[in-house]
Sequence to fold (311 residues):
Amino acid sequence: MTLFATADSVTSARLVGTAPTGYSEDSALHAKAWEGLHISAVFERAEEFDLIHNSFDFLPLTYSGLVATPVVTTIHGFSSELIVPVFEKYNRRGYYVAISDADRHENLDYVATIHHGIDLSEFDLERESGDYLLFFGRIHPDKGTVEAIEVAERAGMPLTIAGIIQDRDYFERLVEPRIDGQRVRYIGPVGRDRRGELLGGARALLHLVNFDEPFGFSVVEAMACGTPVIARPRGSMPEIVREDESGFLVASLDEAVAAVHTAESLDRAAVRASVEQRFDANRMVDDYLALYRRVVALDRAQPVEDGGAVR
Fold:
């Protein structure tokens, strides 16, 4: 196992580092230049590997036709329909993995859907229901921050907001004026040291997204702490949240308010149990290892046409 990542990455694999750190952490790094160096470092050594697993979106696919090594690409959602033609071009020679069934694109073929997994040992079950509601994610219209404030106010419960401000205008116009430090608190981004305590201490996680979310890490992490999730039934949410077991799928703010009052009655141990097998990191690893073996076998068995594998 060789990991191509930033040079400051911590891993038990053999590390090949190109950029010294993430370019979002060092503004002096030119993102496109280091992306080029990073991707080329992988494909210039392609013959050393049985398989290349690409989690770097569409750009590495443009190298895949130049090497014989099969390339598995996990598609972490689509930032725009404008990038789909790249995936379409390499559809017949690549091996695509979706992170949820909801995120499969109708024009593409997939070898598997593999949900993300988390390290459950980092999240302790909190058996008692908390006294606040939680919004945990980037502050952006897509994520429903304002809707979370509205539901909390109508339910008569305090709301804690945690996350980066991705849309500054949205925050300053619609979110910040409603923050009073008591009924609505904003605590900024939260790291691993505080994440479990914050998630586990909430009555419920409000995840009222306004887009078809490919996956929801905070949703799974909250449930791993025993905290129910109140979400809109968009994107991957119906695959993650089990109605009346680990949370509620709501079509309106009225339904969300009602779910807040019902959330306390859910068995928090059952909420955690609902994700222990489905979203454990070890399950994800096993799924990928099985896929790697299948892809290598498929690739070796396929004829070559126009320089690429036919599927």
Q: What stands out?
A: The CA atoms of residues 58 and 86 lie 6 Å apart. Residues 281-301 form the longest helix (21 residues). Confidence is low (pLDDT under 50) at residues 306-311. The chain is about 35% helix and 15% strand.
